[in-house]
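## retry 2 of 3
previous attempt timed out at serialization; input unchanged, resubmitting
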Amino acid sequence: MLGPGQQFLPLCPEHSSCSALAWSPESASTRPPEERAPVQLLRREMCRGEEAFVQQSQNELQQIRLSFERKKMAITEVWDGVAEVHMALNNQATGLLNLKKDIRGVLDQMEDIQLEILGERAQCRSQARKEQQMACVAKGRLQLGCSKGFKGQLWLLALRLLLGTLLACTAAYVYVVDPAPFEGLVPPLLSRATVWKLRALLGPFLRLEVDDFLPF
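## retry succeeded, writing output
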């Protein structure tokens, strides 16, 4: 675009057939301002080879742009998938940490309850022995008290044998048949050392997915 009175640059030999349409300086000065054209039109005939080259360049550029857009979309999808996997892993790690805290709290509560039960049992036994001794001294029946004590010992021995047999049968059932019913029942009743021994004995049958996160 050129103003009135300005000249075009010289053309190359290949486009020497191009012609320009413009107002001459004399006619531009004599015409009123509203009719003066601020631009000049250049009309030229392009070579066929140059037109084909331009068209081919535009096609290649369009293909490059389409390929870039496809690759950009693929990379975006990959990054979205990576972000989703990362978020899922973070959620899983948080869930495992919360599960570990919950299990540790439950184990601490079980240990406190077990200590309370053992203390109450010891207190009841000591109180029962004191009452028995006081009853024997007050009544003056030493022989009868001794015979009762012997019978009590026999009864206690029989009870221990029965309890041992029951525990042996239970262990055999857990070890041979199915350990699932006793997985949640045994830990609250036994100490940690006993639980460790049972875990070492019944390890192949009591494997859980959260065993690696247990604090004991």
